[in-house]
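User: Show me a protein chain along with its predicted structure.
Assistant: Here is one chain, sequence first, then structure tokens.
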Amino acid sequence: MRSERTHAVGRPAKQLRSRSFCRSGQEEEEKTFSRKRMNSFDREGGHCTEMAMVCLTDFEEYAKEHLSKATWDYYAAGADDCCTRDDNLLAFKRIRLRPRILRDVSVSDTRTTVQGMEISFPVGVAPTAFHCLAWHEGEVATARAAESVNTCYITSTYSTCSVEEIAAAAPGGYRWFQLYVYRDRKLSELIVQRVESLGYKALVLTVDVPYTGKRRNDIRNQFKLPPHLKVKNFEGMFQETGAPEEYGIPANTLDPSISWKDVSWLQSITRLPVIIKGILTKEDAELAVEHGVQGVIVSNHGGRQLDGGPASIDALSEIVDAVQGRIEVYVDGGIRTGSDVLKALALGARCVFIGRPVVWGLAYKGEEGVREVLQILNDEFRLSMTLSGCRNVGEINRNLIQVSKL
């Protein structure tokens, strides 16, 4: 029997409902847990067995059950009415595939490259904050999982482990670093110097947060990091003034005046390739090319910023057409299955990045849970790819998509 575990986030852990229902006389609890697909009971052998996690929504249900309400709400949050967050998912369901048959898919290969580096399959880990809220090892566990499956991990500025701790935990991992531009440019410059010296391979500049979107549940919950957790990359950089904080650092630290000149400034202080995250229009994609960046991530920040904007996958084709192969194009937002990955690549993405599912994997089993999430996506992608008649990533193209249905 899997023993009941407490939720290890470094604070006095609340006792969670047991995933077991082996005790007699608890029929209603058995039904509830069965619906949540947590465990199963082998009545013939009299053993309690853990039900396999089959898809990413299994991890989502587990995380919702086991995380505190404030933490779950933080990870799940979208801006305002959450229309864009929800449309990120729905948009993939509107896309249909055109599978080819009799193509000899007895041998298949999911490998690809991003910025010249080979990865095992075209799914990377998007930058998400505060992993220690989900699992006590936080981003260290995430980095190890990404390293173990040989894919790219974009470390968040707002990580609860430092960039040094993450690099030490997975020294052979392929890592990029996600960056914001602050009113005090020295803050951004210092962290760029740190990640460059630690072997991070690219900078991902997030450009869609001049101000933080209105996330209603975070306001209702008065969300803030518990006292034992910090935004570790800025530890000791801010004086204790008692001023209001926003997601772990002093409010109004981000610079709303950020513009294309700051992209040029960033390029002037680093040798690392610069990738822009938060592009949703062809006009901005063309400007990104003009400013010499090495890639763009088509992203609406998981629907957490401007509500009413397009789903990321709906904006992808426009941007791919605009850049015409001059730079690599990636996408995040709403990827939950291997067929979602296939659709994104068919529409021109080089690679996709997942955010919330990684946190769900952490909440389940830390490093092992993240690895399971990534492996499930890899297996599903390979199956979708071969069932569509593609033997490798290079054979995926727009002919697989029913454009008229978009």
